[in-house]
Specification:
271 residues, alpha/beta, Rossmann fold, seven-stranded parallel sheet, 7 strands, binds nicotinamide-adenine-dinucleotide
């Protein structure tokens, strides 16, 4: 990709950038001249992407509040500024093949009008405290920690753009991944509230709600479930990470100067 230069001199900090969409965001911002601090809990992923885009690799678990503060402070100490933060790191709920099989049987029973034959999936009543905590911690706490750490510097500088990666499941939850949907809905609320608080101080906070995107996050999902999901996407296919990167690039840069606490879906018609 040729460097358009429109982000030259800026410092962008991206979480979960060692894979999938985060890596695509790193490539897109670097292509426009940003120096990208490529962070991920997976140090090897961060190093590989940072090497590719000429950025700075950093290992960071976004669920660790002190580590997040230190990583952002270190970035400002090293580079003198932080202009862009993309809160992207995330995890997917694991899929259980027995539940998937039951879901398919239930769907067939529904289509045949046999409602009395439905067997409960029990997803909610079997969800453990640990799984619920981790999901909320990585997504909602992680996004809050990032916003807080970056906003300290950005409000002082009266400049900055924060993009939070939520999901269509935060706008239109589906049965099953309740903790994921709740975390993403929380990120949308955080975005709107903080976006309003800091709007007059030159800092913009916005959210992107991707639909289904072809990344390693979904590769552990049951192919039957994925087939059923894709069949419901009006656009007829999943997105590629690069398609989301265009929207994130817009929100990261000065072109989106009147976006404050706003929420943007790119969902192929799902949202
Ligand atoms: N793929 C989709 O269909 C889809 C749809 C909507 C939203 N999203 C969201 O997009 C974001 C990126 O997901 P992706 O699809 O590119 O997945 P991915 O698995 O390819 O990338 C996620 C990255 O986050 C990192 N990560 C996980 N836990 C972390 C932690 N605690 N701290 C730091 N890094 C951590 C992983 O190591 C990985 O590199 C996530 O927030 C996800 O919820 C994905």
């Amino acid at each position: 990709m040729t460097n358009s230069g429109t982000l030259t001199g800026t410092i962008a900090f991206i979480t979960g950038a060692g894979s999938g969409m985060g890596a695509a965001f790193a490539r897109r911002l670097a292509a426009d001249g940003a120096h990208v601090v490529v962070t991920d809990i997976n140090a090897d992923g961060a190093t590989a992407v940072a090497t590719e885009v000429g950025g700075t690799p950093m290992q960071l678990d976004v669920a660790d509040s002190r580590a997040f503060d230190a990583a952002v402070d270190d970035t400002v100490a090293r580079h003198g500024r932080i202009d862009i933060l993309i809160n992207n790191a995330g995890i997917a709920p694991p899929t259980d093949s027995t539940k998937v099989e039951q879901m398919v049987l239930n769907q067939i029973a529904r289509m045949e009008g046999r409602i009395d034959d439905l067997v409960p999936a029990n997803t909610t009543i079997e969800l453990s405290d640990e799984d619920f905590d981790r999901m909320i911690k990585v997504h909602l706490y992680g996004t809050f920690y990032g916003i807080r750490a970056a906003a300290r510097h950005m409000t002082a500088a009266r400049s900055g753009s924060i993009v939070n990666i939520a999901s269509v499941l935060g706008l239109r939850p589906m049965a099953g991944p309740l903790h994921y949907a709740a975390a993403k809905a929380g990120i949308i609320a955080l975005t709107k509230s903080v976006g309003q608080e800091v709007a007059a101080f030159g800092v913009r906070v916005n959210a992107v709600c991707p639909g289904w995107v072809d990344t390693p996050l979904l590769h552990q999902m049951d192919p039957v479930v994925m087939g059923a999901i894709v069949s419901q996407i009006p656009r007829g296919r999943m997105a590629q990470p690069e398609e989301l990167a265009e929207l994130v690039r817009f929100l990261a840069g000065p072109e989106s100067s009147y976006c404050n606490g706003d929420v943007f879906a790119s969902s192929g018609g799902v949202a």
